[in-house]
Amino acid sequence: MPDPAPRPTVLLLNGPNLNLLGERDPAQYGSTTLAGVEQRVRALGEELGAAVECAQSNHEGVLVEHVHAARDLDGIVLNPGAFAHYSIALRDAIDAVDTPCVEVHISNVYAREPFRHTSVTAPVVQGYIAGCGVVGYELALRAVLHRIEEARRPHV
Ligand code: DQA
């Protein structure tokens, strides 16, 4: 019998101002806190047989380093916050690692100010979810696990 595939580990990474979830602009972002989001995504990971590691930073370079460190992990669920709209450094970090990444925005950025309609990170991620509220994080975890499973499956 071949060894069963090891349990995948996914990084849930949140960018600037997302530490204020629950109190920041609830009309856009809802009332769930970041701790609540992390708990829900971890619980879904357990249910689906995956470990979820969580991190948040308000600093571009720290986010870049988290993405680099995720070279040793199996997937990334990333809400880059406002960095999605202009951080070439974060874009290049995602592009530089082979780890599949799904981008999440809680709000529907395309229904908001024009500067939110550009994502410099979207072209280098495997999937993109916006406007589904915090449920988007759970959808993104399912999506990235599906990618991981597909990549592991022997081609016939
Ligand atoms: C956001 C959308 C961004 O435009 C904004 O700067 C954020 C949150 C979202 O989750 O909807 O910080 O990424």
Report on the structure:
This protein is of the alpha/beta class and 156 residues long. It has one domain: Rossmann fold. It is 36% helix and 17% strand. It contains 5 helices and 5 strands. It has a 5-stranded parallel sheet with strand order 2-1-3-4-5, with helices on both faces. Helix 4 links the parallel strand 3 and strand 4. The longest helix has 18 residues. The protein is globular and about 55 Å long. The model has no long low-confidence stretch (mean pLDDT 96). 1,3,4-trihydroxy-5-OXO-cyclohexanecarboxylic acid binds next to loops. 1,3,4-trihydroxy-5-OXO-cyclohexanecarboxylic acid (DQA) binds next to loops.
The tally of beta strands, per DSSP, is: 5
Strand content: 15-25%
The stretches of 5 or more residues where confidence is low (pLDDT under 50) are none
**Widest sheet, order of strands:** 2-1-3-4-5
CATH class, anyone? Alpha Beta
Q: Total helix count?
A: 5
Secondary-structure content class: alpha/beta
Question: Outline, from the CA principal axes?
Answer: globular
CATH level-3 fold name:
Rossmann fold
Q: Radius of gyration over alpha carbons?
A: 15 Å
CATH architecture: 3-Layer(aba) Sandwich
Identify the bound ligands: 1,3,4-trihydroxy-5-OXO-cyclohexanecarboxylic acid
Q: Please, what is the average pLDDT?
A: 96
CATH superfamily: Dehydroquinase, class II
Note the gap between the termini: 19 Å
Q: Percent helix among the residues? A: 25-40%
How many domain modules?
1
Give a brief outline of the structure.
By secondary structure, the protein is of the alpha/beta class. It has helices at 26-29, 34-48, 60-69, 88-96, 135-152; strands at 9-14, 51-56, 75-79, 101-105, 127-130. The protein is built from five helices and five strands; from the N terminus they run βααβαβαββα.
